[in-house]
Write a structure and sequence with these properties.
Elements (H helix, E strand, L loop, with lengths): L16 E10 L2 E11 L4 E5 L6 H8 L4 E9 L2 E2 L5 H6 L2 E4 L11 H8 L7 H11 L1 H4 L11 H13 L5 E5 L7 H16 L3 E5 L3 H5 L4 E6 L2 E2 L11 H10 L4 H5 L15
Parallel strand pairs: 3-8, 3-9, 6-7, 7-8
Antiparallel strand pairs: 1-2, 1-4, 4-5, 9-10
């Protein structure tokens, strides 16, 4: 798909992704507690919180990889709660996992083509769009994926996601293990993906990094979440410190004026 055609799925005015009172975990182990918020179409929303807070579980819940005990997840108004992961991917959810998840022993091109599985049509155009965004990959089509640099592997992981022609792209710590220069390159590529109409939910550990990228931020602590908030809160130590050092969502984070839907998180999370 060309840059012009890479629009991230159907258009509309409603939220592209929505959590409605979602509690979820793994089997009998609860992690998320009564999560409710929306992601506006064409935006980048960041998830920030301490390790073990439930950020990755939120992404996996969108993909149908957790046990949802209550609530609903909606994609462009369609309920996807607990649907099969493969079905959710076909509906337009691309998940770039922590550690990139590239397939070693396979070429760059083969990795990209696997991303188009289940999303037929315009594959050549989509591949051209990926190469336009990541010229380095076009120079390494036959190279084995594991021989790429860390930054190139992250480009490959994002490019493979774009081969799905996604409505939403979920990114789990894309800056992990990268040099500062390569982090800037990856951030620029994420902005370019957003500019092509793809809605992005990104998990990152660095408030400074998120402040350069996101349109909204959701704090996550103890399986609970704040409302989506303006990124200016990422410069407020009175809000950041309790979340990142104590795993507590301060009143300011719960009561702040949201850009989307406020959450009502009364249940104790893990």
């Amino acid at each position: 798909m060309t840059a012009e055609a890479m629009t991230g799925g159907p258009t509309g005015t409603g939220p592209v992704l929505e959590f409605r009172g979602v509690s979820a975990g793994y089997g009998r182990i609860g992690v998320l507690a009564d999560v409710s918020w929306q992601v506006r179409r064409g935006t980048v929303i960041g998830l920030l919180g301490p390790n073990g807070a439930g950020k990755t579980t939120i992404l996996r819940t969108v993909c149908g990889q957790t046990t949802v005990t209550s609530g609903d997840v909606l994609l462009t108004g369609q309920q996807i709660t607990s649907r099969r992961t493969s079905d959710i991917a076909r509906l337009g959810v691309a998940h770039v996992v922590e550690g990139r998840g590239i397939l070693n022993g396979m070429s760059v091109l083969d990795n990209l083509m696997i991303g188009s599985y289940g999303r037929p049509g315009e594959i050549k155009d989509r591949l051209a769009g990926v190469y336009e965004l990541f010229p380095r990959l076009s120079e390494r089509t036959s190279q084995r994926a594991e021989t790429l640099s860390g930054g190139e592997q992250q480009m490959l992981a994002i490019g493979r996601g774009l081969m799905m022609d996604p409505v939403v792209m979920l990114l789990d710590e894309p800056s992990q293990g990268l040099s500062p220069l390569m982090v800037d390159t990856v951030l620029a590529s994420i902005r370019a993906v957003r500019d092509r109409g793809v809605t992005i939910v990104i998990v990152e550990q660095s408030p400074d990094l998120l402040a350069k990228l996101v349109d909204e931020v959701v704090f996550v602590a103890g399986g609970r979440t704040s409302a989506p908030m303006r990124p200016t809160v990422l410069n407020d130590p009175d809000i950041l410190a309790p979340v990142l050092t104590q795993g507590v969502l301060p009143a300011a984070a719960l009561d702040a004026e949201p850009q989307a839907v406020p959450s009502d998180n009364r249940r104790e999370g893990r």
